[in-house]
Amino acid sequence: MSENLPERQIEIAWPDLGITVTADLDGRNPALADALWESLPYQSLQGHALIAGEHLYHVAPIPTLLHTPHATRIPDRREAPNGTVFCSGLQHLGIKYGTLTEPMPATPVGQIREEDMPALLEAGAAIWDAVYSTKKQILAEVRRAGEPGGHRIPMLRATNATAAQLIADILAETEKIWLAPPVELEGLHQGVIPSQAGNFGTVLPTLLFVNGETRPLGYAAYGGLVRAAVQDMPMSSLIHMTRLLVGVPAEFLGYCGLEKLWAFTQRFLDVLDSLDRGDFYAVTSQMALYINCLGGWNLQLYPWETGDHLRQQSAEGAA
């Protein structure tokens, strides 16, 4: 049974920065707040929005965020108060700390306390600098207020033995890369590309394509398949859509260097026809978490400062 939501507080700490803020879970979206509360404590690589404005987010190790229904939705998160904490169907915990430009619907679960807003602004500036320029890897720790921190990645269960082994292997790889950069992605960002993907020795186009394929594979393809399974799409349709959605991008990413992702995908497609709904949900949920973790590292490692010479112009200025 849920505890009294207004009496629940969480602490979001960035030990590398020496900053901790407290948020009250305020009763909006109690199912999402419950999912967050029950997952605590955890740690994750902290990210920063790159095109939407002053917004922090990280991948939360909470598989149910992909499909937990919301009760309250802000139609335009630009209008949310600064310090609003969100749980997202993209498997994110986000915090608005200033001006946003993207008119995106959002599902709030809490609010950073007013006295902690200066610290939140300080964290936001430092995290932006880390993601955009210095590439310092800043970890976030989310815990129940007053309780110890910690970390774990959940493992979903399958009755099919082949699916269960696949889930265990995906979990092991996810645990390996959750708080440390994947060797494959580090190699790519150092210009080590075994397949030589990238014309005439170039690296940046390959990095761009890897980022552009990984994000929708996790957010849209696997996230969509999990939601479709929960919403009772017929199994024949789930299997058909899986074969349409996941094979081609995963094979391409394997060519670019994400060979583990392609190997997991091949094993998934091999066992797909023998899965019941529960096992299908377990495998797709575990894959979504793994791929969203890869996506977070892509955003951290990508050399965004390469484009620093390009700055937005007004229409009049450009003319």
Radius of gyration: 20 Å
- Overall mean confidence score, pLDDT: 95
- How many strands in all? 9
Q: Characterize the main sheet.
A: 9 strands, antiparallel
Question: Helical proportion?
Answer: 40-55%
How many structural domains? Answer: 2
Low-confidence stretches: 1-5
The computed structural class is alpha+beta
Strand percentage, roughly?
Answer: 15-25%
Strand arrangement, largest sheet?
Answer: 3-9-1-2-8-6-7-5-4
N-to-C CA distance: 61 Å
- SSE string, helices as H and strands as E: EEHEEEEEEHEHHHHHHHH
- Principal-axes geometry comes out as globular
Concise structural overview:
This is Cucumopine synthase C-terminal helical bundle domain-containing protein. InterPro entries: Cucumopine_C (IPR040602). The protein is built from 10 helices and 9 strands.
What descriptors fit this protein?
single chain; about 325 residues; alpha+beta; Cyclophilin; 2 domains; nine-stranded antiparallel sheet; 10 helices; 9 strands; globular
